[in-house]
Design a protein that fits this description.
By secondary structure, the protein is an alpha/beta fold. It is about 35% helix and about 20% strand. The longest helix has 21 residues, at about 95-115. Bound molecules: nicotinamide-adenine-dinucleotide.
Length: about 500
């Protein structure tokens, strides 16, 4: 199992403290990783800085070929990477195999997009001039990611940042470093220093974020950490891209009554995928009253059929949560809602007699609106269902938090689709197909759910600086220069 860091093209053991990595299913230690000393963090940033100039000068088509090769190498190692992610994170194997495929696809997508766009030509002020808008690399990008989709969320940063000509210092979560460190082989054909991979927790992350040599920080994680990073970067006016938490609403409209089972299955999947540890998990269900009872029944029936167990077993639907801490946080939120009068219709307990940080898929009704279960991120397999009288009420409740990551609606009514599309304050609005990502579709949050977008053209531009170039080909003096006594008064406008 790979536990070495990647610094300046060399795989090296960390000289700092030792980080134990736990398997959340067996609750036993899986590996220990030597963390980087402060000298090694410094060396990784220096290596990225050193490599930045020649990587930026590498033709985009060559960078594209190199990124396609990264994708090919990843696909060839799908089974190994998926198993490693399952052992360190607890996500079911089938979901992790998919994740490796999506990760490789992001590299292929940006390999092509990166050679397709470097700016634009704009109409010049005079006929003797040429005006260009250049999109240039920023320099060194620090990429810091969480544990729930370790490789995918890394690829949404690393692939576009490399395609745009930047170099990288990456840090996975302290809970899931192994699959990321195992990627070193997939990057072997890159010039030394173009990508550096460290390990560690907030301390290493903060060292990267605070370093003046890091031009841009791309972060996915909690709002709390995102705010800390934003403060540090504001101080030195470093670029930031923040993908933060969510509390996604899920609205079910009466016109789906004939397909209520489908809407219930879609809802349960959106709530329980990766044991609810998805930033776009459906965490609040607003169901129009005419279909509420049938929806609840179908949701509970389907939930009771789901298989909770060993995440390496391909018949498992839901594995353990990533850690005891995460499980306890979820349980505390459900218990507080129950204490405030909510009913736990199904689930609400560990859901396993053996080892593993399990929490059974849970359906809750009657949670008071002010409980955390309906206001703060849960990040666990819990679906609170709330009956609503009208679409107005559903939209108002959906928009009533400080989050704005995603939103789901089940309806085929065109008027309802148009209203929800326009009025829901969320970075992505899904109709009748929850949580489907598209590499070409920008992903990110409104309000406190984030700043900037990943994926799509926007996800490339997030790692580009903009430069306006104004070229005059004539050396004739301008008639608006001095002396004013004899010239016009045309201003520059600047
Ligand atoms: P977290 O904020 O605790 O940690 C995320 C990463 O930041 C980790 O690598 C961690 O080591 C690092 N970190 C911690 N403190 C730091 C600091 N002071 N400076 C720099 N780096 C620091 O989040 P988590 O618990 O790992 O992940 C769960 C959170 O991630 C949830 O809130 C979830 O919604 C969010 N998330 C968001 C998206 C999205 O795309 N919007 C996707 C997945 C997860």
């Amino acid at each position: 199992m790979e536990t070495r860091l990647l610094i300046g093209g060399e795989q090296v053991a960390g000289d700092g403290d030792v980080l134990p990595v736990e398997n959340p299913f067996t609750e036993s230690e899986l590996a220990s990783v030597g963390l980087p000393s402060s000298e090694q963090v410094d060396a990784a940033i220096a290596a990225a800085r050193e490599a930045a100039r020649s990587w930026a000068a590498t033709p985009a088509i060559e960078r594209g070929e190199i990124l396609h090769e990264v994708a090919t190498r990843m696909r060839a190692r799908t089974d190994e990477l998926a198993e490693l992610m399952t052992r360190e994170g607890g996500k079911p194997l089938i979901e992790n195999s998919d994740e490796v495929g999506w990760t490789a696809a992001a590299f292929d997508y940006y390999a092509e997009l990166g050679r397709n766009f470097a700016g634009r030509v704009i109409p010049a002020i005079e006929s003797t001039q040429l005006s260009l808008v250049l999109k240039e690399p920023m320099g060194v990008v620090g990429c810091i990611v969480p544990w729930n989709y370790p490789l995918l969320l890394l690829s949404w940063k690393v692939a576009p940042a490399l395609a745009a000509g930047n170099t990288i210092v990456a840090k996975p979560s302290e809970l899931t470093p192994l699959s990321t460190l195992a990627l070193a082989e997939c990057f072997e054909h890159l010039p030394a220093g173009v990508i550096n991979i460290l390990a560690g927790a907030g301390e290493v992350g903060e060292a990267i974020v605070s370093d003046e040599r890091v031009d841009c920080v791309a972060f996915t994680g909690s709002i709390e950490t995102g705010k800390k990073i934003a403060h540090i970067c504001a101080d030195r006016v470093a670029r930031i891209n923040l993908e933060l938490g969510g509390k996604d609403p899920f609205i079910v409209c009466p016109d789906v009554a004939p397909a209520i089972d489908v809407a219930a299955k879609g809802g349960a999947w959106a709530a329980f995928l990766n044991a609810g540890q998805v930033c776009t998990s459906a965490e609040r269900f607003y169901v129009l009253e005419p279909v509420y009872d049938d929806y609840l029944q179908a949701f509970v029936d389907y939930t009771s059929s789901l298989v909770v167990g060993d995440p390496l077993d391909t018949s498992t639907d839901i594995g353990p949560l990533v850690s005891a801490r995460q499980r306890d946080k979820v349980a505390a939120q459900v218990d507080a809602a129950a204490a405030a009068g909510a009913e736990v219709v199904i689930g609400g307990s560990n859901g396993s007699n053996g080892t593993g940080y399990f929490y059974a898929p849970t359906v809750v009704t009657g949670a008071p609106a002010e409980t955390d279960l309906l206001r703060e991120e849960t990040f666990g397999p819990v679906a609170p269902l709330v009956p609503v009288k009208s679409l107005d009420e559903a939209i108002e409740l959906a928009n009533g938090t400080h989050f704005g990551l995603g939103a789901n609606v089940y309806t085929k009514d065109l008027d309802t689709i148009l209203r929800c599309m326009r009025e829901l304050k969320a970075g992505t609005v899904w109709f009748n197909d929850p949580l489907t990502d598209n590499d070409a579709g920008p992903f990110g949050g409104m309000k406190q759910s984030g700043l900037g977008r990943e994926l799509g053209q926007e996800g490339l531009e997030a790692f580009q600086e903009t430069k306006h170039v104004h070229i005059e080909t004539s050396l004739a003096p301008k008639d608006w220069w001095y002396p004013y006594g004899g010239g016009s008064s045309q201003a520059t406008g600047a």
